[in-house]
Specification:
Layout (H helix, E strand, L loop, with lengths): L4 H8 L4 H18 L1 H13 L4 H4 L2 H10 L1 H6 L10 E4 L1 H9 L4 E4 L6 H16 L2 E5 L8 H7 L5 E5 L2 H12 L3 E4 L10 E6 L2 E6 L1 H9 L2 E9 L6 E7 L3 H4 L4 H16 L17 H4 L4
Parallel strand pairs: 1-9, 2-5, 2-8, 3-4, 3-5
Antiparallel strand pairs: 6-7, 8-9
Helix pairs in contact: 2-3, 2-5, 10-11
Length: 292
């Protein structure tokens, strides 16, 4: 077996999911125990949400599983579908929204297996309703970028960079009646967000989610991929956005707060699957370097 990263990923993609998740358990705990910065952020973020350790500590191994399942999601052949690994809850909401022809905005927190949601949609609905366009940022590590790009070149799946050109691409997709997906709890670049409470603490929050819905009339839906125990696959949960009035507010801070509130309510349903180690409360780099 070649030792280049792509070959390693393709080799791991042939492993049973339960084996990958077992390796992920070890990776999650090793990262938590060996990295004081990660451990502190993990504990502080979960504590900010008001969670006792017994409710968030299972997320330590879930974070490792997130990493170790990527070979299956990124490196399996295009003719090997993900749908056999997926069950749906709320699938009828997608069908109803798509038939309106106004486009759909899927809002997915850093929770469970967020990669599987777009791939499952692409396989299930992409042929009839056009591709889903997902917002992405290039990996920081140069060697990882071509792997990510190849992973997301799948039928029914398109990508848009986190730039103004990418925003225009997503707008055009929605106006064609297609779907887009984004992680609204991802810290946006400086100037593309506002400060809004997330579990009671100010977090720099993207305004894009509300703009896409308001400017195109698209239907907002919340989606997340629950990771099942024992390598049994995933359940893609779909629910209606529960604060449409807040999302439509002309005040960007209010609409961002509505998005954060919706994400909070989903996260608290299954906090053991949220990525608490994500640097949610960081200041965007340009602002830290001398912005306002």
């Amino acid at each position: 077996m070649s030792t280049d990263p792509g070959s390693v990923l393709r080799w791991l993609a042939r492993w049973p999911l339960r084996w990958l998740h077992r390796l992920g358990d070890a990776l999650g705990w090793a990262t938590y125990l060996l990295s004081p910065t990660y451990r502190r952020r993990f504990n502080e973020n979960a504590g900010q949400a008001g969670l006792a350790p017994d409710r968030f500590k299972p997320a330590i191994r879930q974070a490792g599983r997130l990493v170790m399942e990527l070979p299956l999601l990124w490196a399996r052949p295009n003719d090997q579908p993900i749908l056999p690994h997926v069950r749906w809850q709320g699938e009828s909401l997608i069908a109803a929204a798509l038939t309106l022809g106004r486009g759909v905005v899927f809002l997915t927190p850093h929770m469970g297996c967020f990669e599987v949601t777009a791939q499952a949609f692409a396989e299930r609905f992409g042929g009839a309703y056009g591709p889903i366009t997902v917002l992405f940022r290039p990996a920081r590590k140069l060697w990882l970028r071509p792997l990510m790009a190849a992973a997301r070149m799948r039928p029914g799946l398109a990508t848009a960079p986190a730039t103004l050109a990418g925003v225009r691409q997503m707008m055009r997709a929605l106006r064609r009646g297609e779907s887009v997906g984004l992680l609204p709890d991802q810290v946006p670049p400086d100037g593309l967000g506002v400060w809004a409470p997330f579990f009671g603490k100010p977090a720099y929050t993207m305004t894009l989610a509300a703009r896409l819905v308001v400017q195109t009339g698209a239907v907002p839906l919340v989606a997340w991929g629950e990771r099942l125990a024992g390598g049994a696959g995933y359940v893609v949960h779909i629910s209606a956005f529960d604060d449409p009035a807040g999302l439509a507010s002309p005040d960007p801070a209010e609409s961002a707060a509505a998005v954060n509130g919706a994400m909070e309510r989903v996260i608290l349903q299954r906090p053991e699957q949220y990525l608490w180690g994500y640097h949610r409360y960081k200041t965007p780099a340009q602002r830290a370097a001398g912005g306002d």
